[in-house]
Amino acid sequence: MEVIHLSVECFPIAKVGGLADVVGALPKYQRALGIDAKVVMPWFDCPFVKEQQFEVVTTGSFFQGSDELQYEIHKEESDVLGFPLFLIKIPGKLDREEVYCYPDEAEQWIAFQHAFLHWIQNHGIYPSIIHCHDHHVGLIAFLLQHGVDFRNLADIRTIFTVHNGQYQGWMNWSKGILLPSFDTWKWGLLDWDGVINPLAAAIKCSDAYTTVSDGYLNELFIDANGLQALFNAESGKAYGIVNGIDTAYWNPSSDQLIERNYNRVTVNRGKEENKQALCKQFNLPLAFPLISFIGRFAKEKGADLLFDICVKLFSVRQNVSVFILGSGDREIQNGLIELQLQFEGKINLFFGYDEKLAHQVYAASDMLLMPSRVEPCGLNQLYALKYGTIPIVRGIGGLRDTVVDVLEEGYGFVFEKLNADEAVKTIERSLDMYTDNKIWKGIRKKAMQLDFSWKRSAQKYVELYNQLLK
């Protein structure tokens, strides 16, 4: 069975969020199950591409509106990622440093999808499954079925995974002229509320759609940024499959990016040495329990609550420290700078994203805070559990599916109401348990014994592929 994963992010080539981690790991685990899985994504002017050897396997051209676009298909030669990787390069469209934030994103992703279909059409590539990830490739299923030039590809099965339903790729119908020729009688499949909506088109046209957790699927039926009626109408082909993590890369016993390696037996000593290194680097008190936040400074992640949470926490607990790693909303960032000045020596910040530092933070921290408003799956809590760092999360989406509160004989701390007071109460509950060394050791060991690898989830995807092919 040949499966092509189509995405605009894939770790370590281009990463903005969890989408990249999924696409960078799932194909590798599927190959271990005997699936011929590969990844196709845009070409980016990034360190990975510059450091690896690529061969140009073919070239071609097509018209996007009145513009003729030339494309090249580059294949990574060594399969260093554990699966075949193909990059589509289009001068002026798919040859940039950043993944997002360009004014012509709609044109970029239309060109990416058109080039992909043009390539497989002209070279007789007929995969069993095309697995599309997020709205950037949401037009594929529609074009396979109703694109004038791609009729002989119509029998290819398609699966679409919703990583975040808040972002849908909306574009004005004036962009319709840029699409490959399609059966105009079917224009309604592209439309939602008077605009072209790639996410809606994918849900309508794909053979099946998945979300990255059961909890998030249920939430989309209730609130999906305007698409909840569509998700309900198409619920018969919906599947919730929780994400996994790449335990070859995220593993404290072999992680080359942390100060000292450790396992379930040596976790206490190992985390102490990693904590020593981080606290020394960022001038934090070693003796205090360390709570960290890693993520985008966005309301979706609850980052706007961090200021109030820390102020309230430090007013009731003196012996605690906080480390925040992330970037995003400028107003949130400025508030955190003010917070650091107000509580110097108790809190420190790193703005941006540093892969090595992120690993070190997971290894050094005692708790990880995730006060999310929206969390389709969440991977940070899974990384934290693997490293014996106990998650403090809001019970939403995939966080509810993957974190069980210690009061229910679990291994984390969960609060339901989204406000600073509830978050602080839950943090205090964790700090109380932290003071009992025996209890905390037991929670850590239970957390590190959990298996959130891709093995089980990859098998569920394979079962779904087989179901569709029957």
From TrEMBL:
Q: Which UniProt keywords apply?
A: Glycogen biosynthesis, Glycosyltransferase, Transferase
Residue stretches making up the Starch synthase catalytic domain: 3-230
Pfam families assigned: Glyco_transf_5, Glycos_transf_1
- Ranges for domain Glycosyl transferase family: 280-434
Q: Which CDD domains match?
A: GT5_Glycogen_synthase_DULL1-like (cd03791)
* E.C. no: 2.4.1.21
**Superkingdom of the source species:** Bacteria
Could you tell me which pathway this protein works in?
A: Glycan biosynthesis; glycogen biosynthesis
The entry's ADP-alpha-D-glucose-binding residues are K15
The reactions it catalyses are:
[(1->4)-alpha-D-glucosyl](n) + ADP-alpha-D-glucose = [(1->4)-alpha-D-glucosyl](n+1) + ADP + H(+)
Protein family: Belongs to the glycosyltransferase 1 family. Bacterial/plant glycogen synthase subfamily.
PANTHER family, alphabetized: ALPHA AMYLASE DOMAIN-CONTAINING PROTEIN (PTHR45825:SF11), GRANULE-BOUND STARCH SYNTHASE 1, CHLOROPLASTIC/AMYLOPLASTIC (PTHR45825)
Q: What does this protein do?
A: Synthesizes alpha-1,4-glucan chains using ADP-glucose.
The identity of this protein, by name, is Glycogen synthase
